[in-house]
Design brief:
There is one protein chain. By secondary structure, this protein is mainly beta. It has one domain. The chain contains one helix and twelve strands. The chain has a five-stranded antiparallel sheet, with no helix packed on it. It has a three-stranded antiparallel sheet with strand order 4-5-12, with no helix packed on it. A hairpin with a 4-residue loop joins strand 8 and strand 9. The two termini are 27 Å apart. The mean pLDDT is 92.
């Protein structure tokens, strides 16, 4: 499943600029949230402030972003921040109510969110959900 474009939370730009979020080295995770979540509220600032995390299927607390990289964008003046695709496996029961993917530091600050689908869905056991990170990166610095 291809994720929609990621949206940066308002304060994530400040956190990047002040070194609170260090791209490429912070322990970023992607957590899954339901349609009842406030994940798309741009004024949120911490992982703890996002409500209604998806549940079941052996899923508990998100997946770490792997292979975080910066690559040159459409011009030499641009850099894209990207990561490897993330795979969730429903194990033992269904992973219920998935709609949003949220990236941040567990127990810390938020970076970005994406709507993974127009409606929430369930991943039945033992199936997998692959979140394809956008080819253009999670976001681009220009």
């Amino acid at each position: 499943m291809a994720a929609s474009a990621f949206q940066l939370y308002n304060l994530s730009k400040k956190y990047i600029g002040t070194g609170v979020l260090i791209l490429g080295t912070s322990a970023f995770k992607m957590k899954l949230y339901t349609s009842a979540s406030n994940a798309s509220t741009f004024t949120l600032s911490t992982m703890a402030s996002v409500t209604n995390q998806a549940a079941g299927g052996g899923y508990s607390n998100g997946k770490a972003l792997a292979s975080m990289v910066f690559t040159v964008g459409a011009s030499a003046k641009q850099y894209k921040f990207g990561a490897a695709n993330i795979i969730y496996t429903a194990n033992g029961s269904s992973l219920v109510g998935v709609k949003y993917g949220v990236i941040g530091v567990s127990g810390g600050k938020l970076l970005a969110w994406s709507k993974l689908s127009t409606a929430q869905f369930t991943v039945t056991s033992p199936n997998t959900l692959t979140v394809q990170m956008p080819a253009g990166g999670i976001f681009t610095l220009t």
